[in-house]
Amino acid sequence: MLTRVWLPKIVTFVACITVFPAVTFPAHGQAACGPREDILAALGSVAREQPEGMGLSQRGYILQLVTSDNRRTFSLVAVYPNGRACVVDAGQGWEWVNKLDYPTFGDGT
């Protein structure tokens, strides 16, 4: 079980630092950063993730969601005004939910 979970992450990390040396991969627990094009190219070729959506954060940068074709993996990328981007989080099992299935805030439920 542990191998099934961690092995793909290790392989992805090694492939990223080998194939895309322009992208900075700092110590564990920190975000992988580099030019936006390089980050998205690395996620596209290694993790097979493509942009799904984006939005402007209250702090002035763009948050971009990228997911794999089968939606098994996803990454959240922060894109700063200077073009630098950082993968701020990633995970597995992305699912879209229908907002009609949930009550809206403030309706007393």
Distance between the termini: 39 Å
Strand content: 25-35%
Shape: flat
Number of domains: 1
User: Number of helical segments?
Assistant: 2
Gyration radius, rounded: 16 Å
Give the SSE order as H and E letters.
Answer: HEHEEEE
Record the strand order, biggest sheet: 1-5-4-3-2
Structural class comes to alpha+beta
In oligomeric terms, what are we looking at? Answer: single chain
Overall mean pLDDT stands at: 76
Largest sheet: 5 strands, antiparallel
**Uncertain regions spanning at least 5 consecutive residues:** 14-27
- Could you give the count of β-strands? 5
Helix content: 25-40%
Question: If you had to describe this structure to a student in words, what would you say it looks like?
Answer:
The protein is of the alpha+beta class and 109 residues long. The chain has one domain (2-94). 27% of the residues lie in helices and 32% in strands. The protein is built from 2 helices and 5 strands, in the order H-E-H-E-E-E-E. A 5-stranded antiparallel sheet has the order 1-5-4-3-2, with helices on one face. It is flat, with a radius of gyration of 16 Å.
Short description:
With 109 residues, this protein is an alpha+beta fold. It is 27% helix and 32% strand. It is flat.
Keywords for this structure?
single chain, 109 residues, alpha+beta, five-stranded antiparallel beta sheet
Helices and strands in order, then pairings?
Layout: H1 2-19, E1 32-35, H2 36-46, E2 49-56, E3 62-68, E4 73-79, E5 84-92
Antiparallel strand pairs: 1-5, 2-3, 3-4, 4-5
